[in-house]
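User: I've been trying to design a sequence by hand for this structure and keep getting stuck. Would you show me what you'd pick, starting by listing the structure so we're on the same page?

Assistant: Good idea, let's start from the same input. This is the structure you sent:
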């Protein structure tokens, strides 16, 4: 990768009776010599080639993120299949229209954020459904419990990885690579899944019923 001048730290005070500017220049010079000894080449930085994914593929990925959203929501708020289909097609239609009539930056960020939240939540809820299959009437030994725990961990990780793939697909373009557009809601992706998983847990294992 190109090494740019603005990536070097600037000295606040000079050393060896030199000015701050001269100290910084000397530091960059020494770094350049050491890098050149390792075979690095120097010259003007290249222009980052623009990359814009196929809009149809973005829309397809966005509908997948919407399907994930509806799937996880119906596990938190039970709804009949008819309602799920209406919600999926309705939200998809609105999102596609917004994507077409705007630059698409905001709507893709919204569904990337949704994927980052819903994928791990969906993974945990599926695990809870498995936990409900095993109650005190069916005790498990230490070996079987360990094997099941490792198996569920792998499945949950793969399920949660879907969210990462959706994010990469929706935000994989030059605007986000070069930070012309910034993905908002990073902190929310850490807090909201915990809250939703807590709600799902209390729905399935209510503490007020002696569990």
């Amino acid at each position: 990768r190109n090494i740019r001048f603005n990536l070097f730290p600037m000295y606040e005070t000079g050393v060896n009776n030199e000015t701050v500017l001269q100290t910084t220049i000397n530091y960059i010079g020494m770094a350049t010599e050491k890098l050149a000894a390792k075979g690095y080449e120097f010259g003007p930085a290249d222009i980052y080639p623009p990359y814009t994914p196929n809009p149809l593929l973005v829309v397809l990925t966005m509908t997948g993120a919407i399907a994930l959203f509806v799937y996880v929501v119906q596990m938190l708020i039970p709804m009949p299949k008819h309602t799920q289909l209406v919600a999926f097609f309705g939200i998809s239609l609105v999102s596609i229209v917004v994507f077409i009539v705007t630059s698409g930056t905001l709507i893709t960020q919204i569904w990337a954020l949704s994927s980052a939240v819903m994928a791990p939540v969906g993974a945990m809820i599926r695990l809870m459904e498995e936990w409900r299959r095993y109650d005190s009437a069916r005790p498990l030994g230490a070996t079987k419990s360990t094997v099941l725990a490792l198996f569920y961990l792998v499945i949950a990780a793969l399920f949660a990885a879907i969210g990462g793939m959706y994010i990469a697909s929706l935000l994989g373009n030059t605007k986000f690579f070069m930070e012309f557009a910034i993905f908002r809601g990073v902190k929310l992706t850490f807090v909201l899944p915990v809250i939703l998983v807590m709600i799902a847990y209390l729905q399935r294992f209510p503490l007020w019923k002696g569990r």
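That's my pick for every position. To get oriented when you compare it with your attempt: The chain has two domains: 5-37, 55-209. The chain has a mean pLDDT of 86.
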